Amino acid sequence: MSLEASSVLxxxxxxSLSSLLASRAGKRPREHLSGEELQEAAIQLLNSNQNLSxxxxxxGQHSPKFGKVDHYWDSGERDAFDHRPDPVQKTGASFLLSExxxxxxxxxxxxxxxxVKVVLERVLELTTERDEDHVLLTSAQRAQLCVLLxxxxxxxxxxxxxxxxxxxxxxxxxxxxxxxxxxxxxxxxALEDLFESNDDVGSWLVKKFQALCGLLPSQEEEELxxxxxxxxxxxxxxxxxxxxxxxxxxxxxxxxxxxxSVLDNMLSWxxxxxxxxxxxxxxxxGKAAAMAWVGVFEACVSHASVLGQALRRFxxxxxxxxxTHCPRLKVSDAIAMQNNWxxxxxxxxxxxxxxxxxxxxSMEELLSHLQQVxxxxxxxxxxxxxxxxxxxxxxxxxxxxxxxxxxxxxxxxFEAYDLxxxxxxxxxxxxxxxxxxxxxxxYSDWFKLAFGGASGYHGNSKKSLVFLLxxxxxxxxxxxxxxxxxxxxxxPYVPAKHRALLQEYVSLAKTRLADLKVSVEExxxxxxxxxxxxxxxxxxxxxxxxxxxxxxxxxTGKISAMVMEASIFRRPYFLSRFLPALLTPxxxxxxxxxxxxxxxxxxRADKIPSAVYSSYxxxxxxxxxxxxxxxxxxLEGSEAVLAVLRSQLQELRRLLSSGANHGDVSAQLARIxxxxxxxxxEPPEEAVGHHVxxxxxxxxxxxxxxxxxxxxxxxxxxxxxxxxxxANPPNRQGTWAAQFVKLLLGHRRLLISLLHRLWDLLPQxxxxxxxxxxxxxxxxxxxxxxxxxxxxMVQLPSSSPTTxxxxxxxxxxxxxxxxxxxxxxxxxxxxxxSDHMNFSLRFCVAAVSYGLCSSHPEGVQQCIPSGLYKKLxxxxxxxxxxxxAEGGCKGRGQPEHLQPGGGAEEPGVxxxxxxxxxxxTASVLELWRYGPFRSLQKLPAYQLxxxxxxxLELRVQRSQDALSxxxxxxxxxxxxxxxxxxxxxxxGGCGGDVQSxxxxxxxxxxxxxxxxxxxxxxxxxxxxxxxxxxxVLSRLQSSGRADGHFLFDxxxxxxxxxxxxxxxxxxxxxxxxxxxxxxxxxxxxxLSLIPVKTEGAKRSLECQPLIEHVNLYQRKVCSPAGLLPxxxxxxFLRGIVGASxxxxxxxxxxxxxxxxxxxxxxxxxxxxxxxxxxxxPVLGSQWNRGSDGDFLPEKLQQLADCHSWACRWVSSSTGxxxxxxxxxxxxxxxxxxxxxxxxxxxxxxxxxxxxxLQQHHRPVLVFLLFFCMxxxxxxxxxxxxxxxxxxxQQQCCxxxxxxxxxxxWLHLFHSQSTEQNQYQCATIISTEENNRLMPLAFYSLxxxxxxxxxxxxxxxxxxxYTAVLSYCKLLQLFLDGExxxxxxxxxxxxxxxxxxxxxxQQVLLKIIILSSPGCLTHTQRTELEELCGELxxxxxxxxxxxxxxxxxxxxxxxx
Length: 1455
Prior knowledge:
Blueprint: H1 3-6, H2 17-27, H3 35-46, H4 52-60, H5 87-107, H6 111-127, H7 139-157, H8 163-172, H9 177-185, H10 191-197, H11 201-213, H12 220-242, H13 250-275, H14 280-301, H15 308-323, H16 331-337, H17 348-358, H18 363-376, H19 381-394, H20 398-416, H21 419-434, H22 443-451, H23 462-475, H24 481-489, H25 499-515, H26 538-556, H27 561-569, H28 571-582, H29 594-604, H30 610-628, H31 638-657, H32 662-679, H33 685-688, E1 693-694, H34 704-727, H35 736-745, H36 748-765, H37 771-786, E2 794-795, H38 821-826, H39 834-854, H40 860-863, H41 866-879, H42 881-884, H43 909-913, H44 920-928, H45 931-935, H46 946-954, H47 965-980, H48 994-1010, H49 1029-1039, H50 1044-1054, H51 1064-1083, E3 1092-1095, E4 1098-1101, H52 1104-1112, H53 1126-1140, H54 1146-1160, H55 1162-1170, H56 1172-1187, H57 1194-1211, H58 1224-1237, H59 1245-1251, H60 1258-1277, H61 1282-1299, H62 1321-1325, H63 1328-1332, H64 1334-1341, H65 1347-1354, H66 1359-1376, H67 1394-1410, H68 1418-1431, H69 1433-1442, H70 1446-1454
Helix pairs in contact: 4-5, 4-7, 6-7, 6-8, 11-13, 11-14, 12-13, 12-14, 12-15, 13-14, 14-17, 17-19, 18-20, 19-21, 20-21, 23-25, 24-25, 26-28, 27-28, 31-32, 31-34, 32-35, 34-36, 34-37, 37-39, 39-41, 46-48, 48-49, 48-50, 48-51, 53-54, 53-56, 55-58, 57-58, 58-60, 59-61, 60-61, 64-66, 66-67, 66-68, ...
């Protein structure tokens, strides 16, 4: 049979070799023939009727690799397979070779040529049955081709096949790329043979690659085949082009060049397709083709068959090719168009290509290569700058490396005055600034750092300065306006003698801005001169200025200096741009917000014309009516921005859930940042600075778009965290969360809105938040804390620095100044009620677990806020009783080997939180027992001290507590006695000292009232009547160590700093402290106030601490002055009576105590006399119970007698009654109480009754006058009105009429006198304020005396001296503004104190005239003349005239 005939046999004639052999074996009887004989017989039989092409397929079917079409990923380096002895396979191969030899002899051609012809014919037959334009084979064609190639391999192994001849013949028949791929994969045809045979193979291969990339497979098998073909052939090209060859022949040198040429051509095609401008359909097809080739780069980089050095050389060449591809743009074009080449605006396929090529290199290597390319090639600036942006986004160390490179470039530029280095540095710095402050400093910051000081690169010589200014001047025609503004507003440093050079540049830049119709005069007050954004329209810039001005006003309380200057020096911009943007009509909130306050401040400063303000208020009213009618202005473009942001956040979720690499996540975050920059432009860093963010309670963002952006960001972060946690724990999630927070920090306006949103969300809606929200917000707070100094400080609402005398106060629990963000938001986590406690527990557990699982051992403090940790340490034992059995976190040894962080020993605390089947209690206990959690307690910053625990416990609202009353008492007893009492002082405990524990309790109780949480809204404040104060005080009572010494020492420590008499705030603070203290001691047993000291076998009462306390502190807050409140007086006296029962002779002890009080504590004595009517039954009953009915002690009986006498004196018609033997002060106090409270005393009868005391009991009248004058001053200070003042004046005048001829009563007005007298105790009784106002009382009474009484008073010793001295003090009080002032809302008949001063001068002049010259000593007259000479020269002159020596008086009379 001929070769031609055998090639066209009908299918019906085809018979398989196996079936023929089998049938012959069945028909013939068995003969004992050898295998060789049997094989020769079969060959002879088949030679007569066999198709050679089919025989190739028949032999290939028995290959062990038959049917496995998809096993070729490697390019020829396959594992050797096991050739087992197969008689059929061996027979088929031998027969095939025999047939080829036979036919070659018949045709007269070599066996190798014939085998090539047969194989080629079969290949063409298989591959031409389908449309020739189709790039890939069908699955059936592919299977038959693989079988055919197996037979070809057999021929090749037998040495009867020529691959090069096959390729030469196949090249003439328009070969297919997939066939070449299979030939190469089967190690039949080497890639080198393709290139050596024909020079056009390279261009053909490029066309086939392009066609295959553009193929859109409809089946998954075709897609896999497409990827394998591209990756396999490309890997072969990379190996051929970049692996070092051993053979140095010329043909071997041409092969790498041709491989590189193919790769270069494909890369050029890829770059052209990315930059081409086509229709939508063509763009989509081109994108798919480009995406296919970009994907091949990743397969090549990760392929094991390509050596690492070859990959590095390939990546370097490809990167250079990209950077130098089509360098059409000039430097001037790059300067103008640079803003459009940021990472977010670059084609994602190009950035992906950069990432795949740069993955093998460090940042230093990449920037070094970039600099080398810039120095040696003409570059495509768009590709160069896009590559730099990609490197900054994907490389965490990009910023320092770029700064170092810029420093080298600038140094080189100024050393050699190289313009190329200079322009390169400026372009690269601007490109970095365009990516935002999170990746690189702003252009203005970089420019100021490089050229803003004398130490800048240009500061060493005039030539360097001229070089810089010449360079900047050359840039002016091409520079965008924002960069010109940077150079104008932040010019380079220029010495004074060269200022003219700078002025030339500034004039040139301003002229260029004018040509661009960007007026310098219309530049915004806080214009974005960072260079990070394109030019903003004037109306938009004005809106940004308004927002920034309001922010500054909100944080400082003052109108910004920029606004004030603009209202004067830039009035056109202020009136035409700024005010219209500020006064945009809106619905005014019920409570004035920051914008309203700012507008009002400008109006008060006359910066808003009245007509403009009136029009604004009318427009706001119209806007309110419009919205009430249901007409709402749409937010233009806001929905589109939100849709873009949501889709980007959704894509971020997808990346995190699929475990995408760091670079892809960073790229997506960069796109989100770009979207936020467009939606909410930021002010420049210079204007933002490090200002403290002032939070406002209940204030929502006035910009609705910002509010919706913030909500979308918060929701997106929570969802991303949840998706990422499903795949990996926090320590294996990468740095996406930290990058997300840096993104927020780069958008200050959004950050402020976000903090306000969290400040309102946590206390208001916290208990209703779901688990996903709690986990996400907790992680966000941890990341804000980890950002450290990048975060601004936060000032809580209505909180300002206050003076606290408590040494135990904690700034973390009572913040009064700027705080870190994490601590500020910690203040919003309330623990007042059961709901808030449960939410705070959930939140703190999530935050601490996240921080522990995401931190490294050395950085745990940077990841876990101490405030959250302390709150968790407080809440866990309180709400989870099982945790108390663990002994808390104190007093128990923590394992030293356990360190925070994740890794192989991660215990699952985070996985338990994300598992919905695990209860909160189980999660809490898991964390509570976690070693690293407990190890944190060793750090001082994480130790919840006893004062901090008390502050938290005292703020719990008892009626809404999670614990019942018995449970709360049990918990507090455990905390005080078992947790904090035995804990060492260095760990926040008491060190076993009960007195120290009591001190902490008392200070905490005082702090609760004196330092309220003013930053909380009224809805969340706890009423003082519903706190845990009674429960905490019960701990103090149960301690048994709250004795008088201890209690009074505590209050003395808090009040040790005497308030300045001129400082009203200090006085009010002291009053608040003492009023709080009084409430505390009234809640304690009275017996604890009076200690009993033992001297040998005798016991006595120690009243000195009580006496000192009353004299030093209590008298300062008495109201009215000179009188202790009844509850306090009764408590003190009950303490004395109760403590006396511990002595052998109780009555004697009481007598000694009261005698000591009479001598050393007149205030308590007078108060006892005043309140005896109420005290008598209380003390009497107490005495009777303790003494079995004995008579009252002598001193208590004396009090009763004085009270009885006062009652008889008032009730008697004549007032005659025997006066008991008692201190005059006590008698006066009892008499004053009865006299002023008696309703049946006739005004006419008062003088007669008082006269009866004049002869023998004048001191009683003097003290009674003192008490009445205290009433008078109280009437002046209080809101009672003129009627009360008149009544008090009348009582004082009645007494003064009887005392006027004596000097005793004048002692009351010399509080600072060192002269000893029996009336000095009046000074100790009264308050400091009343002592200062005694001159007012003097001149309220003296002018009311009739002429006869006044003449009698003038003749009294020291009267004139007292009158002049009191007048000078009264005048000084008025000058200092310390006299009582009329209240805004008061009865119309209220006394005006200023009238007293006008009458005082008249009366004093009259007194001086009536006085004799000898009534004053020379020293007294000199003293008074000096005082009056400074305050009232008229009085001084009168003194000098009337009281001069006799000889001078006669001379003056003569004149």
